[in-house]
Structures are given as structure tokens and as C-alpha cells.
């Protein structure tokens, strides 16, 4: 992940922790009821994280942030008594709508400004829904591509491939599934992923530029799923 995103994450979580500490301090002083504040306003945390997601991504990956904001607003309205107690009747349709919009419009926003070279060819074009797929790429001029997974799994093996001009980009979309990418040990991998209730692991070694034979850029979004890159 880019360093500015990591620093930003520390900043936003630091502010949240400070706010929690202030609330506890005021509660111990008898100024406020900590129980009432936390039980009523905890969804504000989702809204703040969603806003930070939008800002830190430069509004390039807008759907994860908007989803968190929407969920935060729904839960907050429920806690304030503006929505029925069974708030889940609003939550799951909202999640489905955002996932659909993200699958349709997400790649359009990501292409506007993203790390790595543009995808000029679909040397990799994989779409997995409710299943598992293994793809072995042996191309000696791999130019990148796209991979999407919904409720499934995808294994991409690039260990016998060579990148065209030493660089390539893979655009990924994961919803409640997983993608594993295997690369040669002499490649650098730059992962620019926006996770929402998901995980991203880049287990490759960070090589000096002079030693790296190629650089693979992996960008996209992971929602309630996982992505792992390893040598």
C-alpha cells in the first residue's frame, strides 16, 4: 500500500482513539453519559472512516467509502429512532445496490488516476461467480488485465510469465471471495487496494529497483474478501 495511505490510516484512527478517550474522561467527570453516547453514536465511526476512504483515495475509489457512509447513516438513524428497530431490512438491500454499482462503475473511476501503467490489453480476463478458477499465465509479453470474483476463488500463476516492457497492471474486483496471485521472486509488486471488511497481503520481497526484473501493479477493491500476492 502507498505510504501516504498508511500514514493517513494512523491519523484517522488516532483521532478516533482521542475522541473515545475524551468521552471517557468527561464521563468520569460526570459531564456526560458514556453509555448513552457510545450506544447511540457509534455509527459515526463508520461515517468518519468512509469519508477518510474517499479523501485518501483521491475520490478514485468512491464506492467503498460511500458504502461505509451509507451504512453509518442507516445505523445512526436507527439509533436515533428515525428508522424501525429491524434496521437490517435496509442494510442488506443497500449493500446489494452498492456492490452492483461498484461492479459496473468501479473500473471507470479507477482508470482515471491509478498507480502503474494503463491496461492496454486483456491478456488476463477472468470473471468468477460462485466457483473456483485456476489461471496459469506463461506469456512472454504479459500486458495486464482484469479479474473479478464474486462469492468464489481465483488463483493466478504468473511465475512463468514475462512482463511486456517490464511493467504491467492487473485490475481486481473482489466481493466476498478471494484472489491469490503468484509471481516470480525477482518481481516487485505494488498493491494499491482499497479493502472494505476485507484483507490484503503482499508477501513478496521489496527488491531494490536495480535488482527487480519487472514491476507488477495490482489495484482495485476488496469487499468482505481477501487478496494475497506471493512469490
Short summary of the structure?
The protein has helices spanning 3-28, 34-41, 43-56, 62-79, 88-112, and strands at residues 124-129, 132-136, 145-150, 153-157, 167-175, 178-182, 187-196, 199-202, 214-223, 226-230.
Order of helices and strands: HHHHHEEEEEEEEEE
Largest sheet: 5 strands, parallel
Helix content: 25-40%
Shape descriptor reads elongated
Total number of helical segments? 5
Low-pLDDT residue spans? 1-6
Please state roughly what percent of the residues sit in beta strands, choosing from under 5%, 5-15%, 15-25%, 25-35%, 35-45% or over 45%: 25-35%
Structure class: alpha/beta
How many E strands? 10
Query: How many domain regions?
Result: 2
Would you tell me the overall average pLDDT?
A: 80
User: How do the strands of the widest beta sheet line up side by side?
Assistant: 1-3-5-9-7
Structure description:
This protein has helices spanning about 5-30, 35-40, 45-55, 60-80, 90-110, and strands at about 125-130, 130-135, 145-150, 155, 165-175, 180, 185-195, 200, 215-225, 225-230. By secondary structure, the protein is α/β, with parallel strands linked by helices. Helix 1 (about 5-30) packs antiparallel against helix 3. The chain folds into 2 domains: about 5-110, no CATH class; about 125-230, no CATH class. The protein starts with a helix and ends with a strand. The protein is built from 5 helices and 10 strands, in the order αααααββββββββββ. The longest helix has 26 residues, at about 5-30. The strands form 2 sheets. The chain has a 5-stranded parallel β-sheet, covered by helices on one side. A 5-stranded parallel β-sheet has the order 2-4-6-10-8, with no helix packed on it.
Amino acid at each position: 500500500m502507498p505510504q501516504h495511505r498508511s500514514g493517513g490510516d494512523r491519523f484517522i484512527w488516532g483521532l478516533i482513539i482521542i475522541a473515545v478517550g475524551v468521552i471517557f474522561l468527561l464521563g468520569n467527570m460526570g459531564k456526560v453519559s458514556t453509555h448513552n453516547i457510545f450506544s447511540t453514536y457509534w455509527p459515526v465511526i463508520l461515517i468518519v472512516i468512509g469519508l477518510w476512504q474517499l479523501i485518501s483515495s483521491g475520490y478514485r475509489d468512491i464506492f467503498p467509502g460511500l458504502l461505509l457512509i451509507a451504512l453509518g447513516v442507516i445505523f445512526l438513524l436507527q439509533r436515533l429512532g428515525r428508522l424501525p428497530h429491524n434496521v437490517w431490512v435496509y442494510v442488506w438491500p443497500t449493500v446489494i445496490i452498492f456492490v452492483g454499482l461498484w461492479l459496473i462503475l468501479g473500473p471507470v473511476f479507477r482508470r482515471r488516476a491509478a498507480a502503474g501503467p494503463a491496461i492496454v490489453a486483456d491478456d488476463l480476463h477472468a470473471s468468477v461467480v460462485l466457483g473456483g478458477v485456476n489461471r496459469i499465465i506463461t506469456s512472454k509479453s504479459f500486458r495486464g488485465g482484469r479479474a473479478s470474483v464474486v462469492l468464489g476463488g481465483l488463483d493466478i500463476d504468473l511465475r512463468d510469465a514475462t512482463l511486456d516492457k517490464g511493467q504491467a497492471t492487473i485490475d481486481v474486483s473482489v466481493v466476498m471471495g478471494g484472489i491469490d496471485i503468484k509471481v516470480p521472486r525477482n518481481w516487485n509488486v505494488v498493491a494499491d487496494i482499497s479493502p472494505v471488511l476485507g484483507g490484503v497481503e503482499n508477501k513478496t520481497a521489496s527488491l531494490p529497483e536495480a535488482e527487480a526484473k519487472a514491476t507488477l501493479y495490482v489495484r482495485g477493491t476488496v469487499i468482505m474478501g481477501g487478496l494475497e500476492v506471493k512469490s
